[in-house]
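Structure ticket #2291
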Amino acid sequence: MSKVYVIGSLRNPAIPQVAEMLRSLGHEVFDDWYAAGPEADDYWQKYERAKGSSFAEALAGFAAQHVFAFDKKHLDACDIAVMVMPAGKSAHLELGYCKGLGKQTVIFMDKEPERFDVMYNFADKVCTSDEELIGFLGTDWPGVFQDTRFGALSNPAAAWPFPLPTPREQFYAEADAANVAAPVAPKSCATCSSQNWCTGAYAPASFGRDCTGYQRERG
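Resolution: structure written out below.
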């Protein structure tokens, strides 16, 4: 499962539809920026002008810096950036930023463009239909890792960009907790008990049911 950042315009009603389609493929999708509404930038500009701020001063203001930091954090965290057309200057800057970070970049259009742009070759893929986008992204992306002992495990990272422990990490954490409890379990072998290894202050790394003495006594 991949982390997908949907890039686009606040005025584009297709954003939530594309985001939901990508979620249905099993990807973790970020499009929360769309909640600000279609006139968010207009109101910000009116507010700053009413204060007498220049464009440069407005960019340095708390409101702009807050929104910029919020979007950038999630751009940094994504695996794939999908820009939904039509989109403006900000969207193209965001896609270029992701490309510069080495992330997968996709430009998604619902039809052939009226004007061709050769620089769209920077994107890894240009899609002009839902089927083409689905075919390119698929349902199995770099978010899945393979462990030969426990099979394929996927990291849901439900709270990205603040990742939760992977299933493998959780497995080992639980195993470590079980081993720590082993010294007080009634499974110590006679050899370890007589030497005070299983319950003593100097218990070795391998003890209790995992120690050589216990395995020997159990045959």
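Closing remark: The two ends are 45 Å apart (CA to CA).
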